[in-house]
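## Example record

The block below lists the input lines for one assembly entry, exactly as stored, with component labels intact.
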Amino acid sequence: MSTIDIRKIAKEAGVSVSTVSKALNGYKDIKEETRLRILRIAKELDYIPNVMARGLITKTTNTIGVFFGDQTNSGFDSPFLSDYFASIKNVVGEAGYDLLIFSNQKRKTPSFKSICYEKGVDGVILILTGKRRTDEKIHELHEIFPTVYIDSLPFNKMKVNFVESDNELGAYEAAKHLIDLGHRNILKMAGDKIAKSSFDRIEGYKQALDEFGIGFNEDLVKYGQYSRETAYEEAKEFFSRPNDVTAVFASSDVMAFGVMDALKDLDLKVPDDVSVVGFDDIEEAKYSGPPLTTVHQQRLEIGETAANILLDLIQKKDGATRHISIPPQLVTRKSCKEVM
Amino acid sequence: MSTIDIRKIAKEAGVSVSTVSKALNGYKDIKEETRLRILRIAKELDYIPNVMARGLITKTTNTIGVFFGDQTNSGFDSPFLSDYFASIKNVVGEAGYDLLIFSNQKRKTPSFKSICYEKGVDGVILILTGKRRTDEKIHELHEIFPTVYIDSLPFNKMKVNFVESDNELGAYEAAKHLIDLGHRNILKMAGDKIAKSSFDRIEGYKQALDEFGIGFNEDLVKYGQYSRETAYEEAKEFFSRPNDVTAVFASSDVMAFGVMDALKDLDLKVPDDVSVVGFDDIEEAKYSGPPLTTVHQQRLEIGETAANILLDLIQKKDGATRHISIPPQLVTRKSCKEVM
DNA sequence: GCTTTTTTCGAAAACGTTTTCGAAAATTCA
DNA sequence: TGAATTTTCGAAAACGTTTTCGAAAAAAGC
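Predicted structure tokens for the full assembly:
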């Protein structure tokens, strides 16, 4: 309908299309007078540039692409996503970009690179989970497009722009908090043995132990696979046998809930019999019984810095690849208790 | 980088570009043998079509645009959004579409129509809140683009594709539940006097009253403006004075929380002294003290049907403009009690 | 005055496809 | 076998811009 193109404006203004294009795009070789005239006419006619024709030449679209979630579960599987998403939307929006969510499942060649090329995005943000993380050809992506990863890398030590929580610091503070409360035997309900974040959260725990001269005991770390059920099983088994553990530090809130489930089944009270602290600070943490002490990830700030890095990349302001860790914060609620 | 275009394939295959294009797009006037050859070469060369060049001609992009939120608060201000979003993403994704989130704040002419035209989306979903709802030129949009609204209309009685919760039904069932429990004097904490949804939720309440021969009392409806604070104030004022109300039905969970705040301040116990039921079933409703009986909105189903309607529209399967109301479900928790 | 420089503009190519239409080749028909 | 039909292909226009490069016009220099 809106079939007013640059040619119509040219005719109306009595100039060539190139002159119109230049006037519209701020070229300096146009007389001020004609520039104003063209602009006026364009406004009168309600001219809207055709972004495809333009993109065909400039190879830019003013949109940045976002991959998130697993390939199968394409929804907001993690409560984190909407926070990431909201903050990214804000900062790229202020910079004049729209957001393209890759949801099309019918692609023939579903490589990240080709998807981005096909749609012509100016940059990409990846928030990957699950098996999609390990797409074998993923490295091709950041060689061609400005790219920044959030939270997790396809494989560790990858040389790529990356922003995450400072998992080690967060874990350190959680463990230190427990130690400060007098706990000496702390069970570590870790995630898995693969992800960097999982590793880092064990590392912070070790570091706190070390600082207070508490020996690290291999038997006190269990792997809950970031699942409530698995954490439940592991905790149930552990606490069914004699032990002198007075606290558990879980690498995620859902796993913390899993161990609290197990504790309840074993008639152990939280925090009276055993203290527990989680990681993430998901919404439910505020409302659990008891409300969970946990380490809060600054999701909005993570999204913001990722977006800002990407914008820098797109505008070529910065060539260096950056790895930024946002410090999380311990939030103390009711699931921990001092011990003599 | 990936500079393999249709011409390279043509040269490689020894045919013309038009032949390649037709082979790639399933035209029937290509010999099977050459079609296969072209397809093979395209795959070998890792050919990726340029959607901008294509879109320039076909005027389609295989992306559908979504507007959501207020103009200022461009994040996921409502917990509903991520549900809507996830379900929309799933259904359009299966149909071969990507999602474009309009976040760019730097547009010169920020009319919905021009934004959509500029980006060349094939259809639009609008989930608008706040003042953005009343953009004066919004009607232009659905005259040009396949469009479906979710939850709220720019103005009532607008002839446009629209999917929402069946607010009247939900309110009816909530009120009926209270009546079934023996309550006869039920305070209605309504939303505002503008939105259709707000109106409908009063209407359902009236209807239940009517069915049971309970007279409608104008003095028993207060307006909480969908705000916890305002609902708190209204409830505080109401319950400070003598009355025989034994239950309140709020038009949103947050308002229900507001009245529970007020009740607590006045030393009235929920549900012993007064029962309360909400509307929406937000996440917190499960965890409040006591857990809130409320009417659950089927957000995923709403998003799905909106997306499906849009796809029908795009594929011209359906010319009629549809208005669909998804029935919500009463979920009874601990905030209501029987009364003799 | 004429030359040189600067300012202002336009012609045309390019971006990578799709699609129409006609022609050539192959096949069928009689 | 020749005509009619069908199958298979390609030339070229079109989509709506941007951008290069050269030319015309105006201004400056002398």
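Residues 15-19, 22, 28-31, 34, 53, 55-59 of chain A lie near DNA strand C (CB under 10 Å from a C1'). The two ends of chain A are 77 Å apart (CA to CA).
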